[in-house]
Amino acid sequence: MFQDPRKTLRQHHLKPKYDWGQNFLISADKVERMISMLGTQPGDRVLELGAGTGVLTYALAEASPQASIFALERDRDLVALLEQELVPAYQHVQVIAADAASFALSELPEGGPLRILGNLPYNISSPILFHLLEQRHLWTHALLMLQKEVAERLAAKPDSGKDYSVLSIRFGMFCDVLKVLNVPRRCFHPQPQIDSAVVRIQTLPQPRFPLHSEDTFVRTVKAVFASRRKTLHNTLRSGFSEISVEAIDALLHILHIDPQRRGESLSLQEFALLSNALHEQQTTP
């Protein structure tokens, strides 16, 4: 069942909130394809981030009658709309008034595996993504629509140029990420200035490579990308100032990593090895 957001907004005398980055999906084809790609199974729980007018929610509710669906929305006007029209029609749908950037997945009722669906606002997509990554032990799959540039960074591999970033590495260490669908700007109301893309994310049971400390891993990645033009010798010296320059160069030598390399050239395995060596350096008396 396709519910055109333009019609819904008109009926309820509502307008998109531009300062909230509200761009509503108006393509019935893209809605159908996203619901199909989510792969919901009977007994699953599905959390939709930013339900909006319910364009994805209605289609999901129709396609997955044996799943428990939670529609998260922070816009109180849209929450009222969903509670008035969506909830009475579908007993397996619950609306939650909350912000996706801070909502704790542990607050959801317990049940089957948790899948996440969402069309994320461009202006806060990165905080939401990192918030989800920190809670990855609570969900299995996600299908997210993002600004195309962010989607490409999320799915980037080593040596892919400027797209390979903190986002790529942190998600790459803990998840399988694949860009699965391009969504032109004409598929939205109001029409944004940029195109979108959909990524499919599956969490891994363990990090892709062993890590002594996730905190040190995150710190290492941030330090290396603090200045993309600088070499590892310089970025690590700045990011781990408590470790001597001589010790940093020595551990890079032991790892067979050239100190003149730049962060975007390191593989995920090299980031893991570097992070572990830095952690040992910090914790050795």
What does this protein structure show overall?
- The structure is a single chain.
- With 285 residues, the chain is of the alpha/beta class.
- The chain folds into two domains: 5-203, 3-Layer(aba) Sandwich (Rossmann fold), CATH 3.40.50.150; 214-283, Helicase, Ruva Protein, domain 3.
- The protein has eleven helices and nine strands.
- It has helices at residues 5-11, 28-38, 55-63, 76-85, 125-134, 148-154, 166-174, 214-224, 232-239, 245-254, 268-283, and strands at 24-25, 45-49, 68-73, 93-97, 114-119, 141-147, 175-183, 188-189, 196-203.
- The protein has a seven-stranded mixed beta sheet with strand order 4-3-2-5-6-9-7. A two-stranded antiparallel ribbon has the order 1-8.
- Helix 8 (214-224) packs across helix 11 and helix 10 packs across helix 11 (268-283).
- It is elongated.
Protein topology:
Blueprint: H1 5-11, E1 24-25, H2 28-38, E2 45-49, H3 55-63, E3 68-73, H4 76-85, E4 93-97, E5 114-119, H5 125-134, E6 141-147, H6 148-154, H7 166-174, E7 175-183, E8 188-189, E9 196-203, H8 214-224, H9 232-239, H10 245-254, H11 268-283
Parallel strand pairs: 2-3, 2-5, 3-4, 5-6
Antiparallel strand pairs: 1-8, 6-9, 7-9
Helix pairs in contact: 2-3, 8-9, 8-11, 10-11
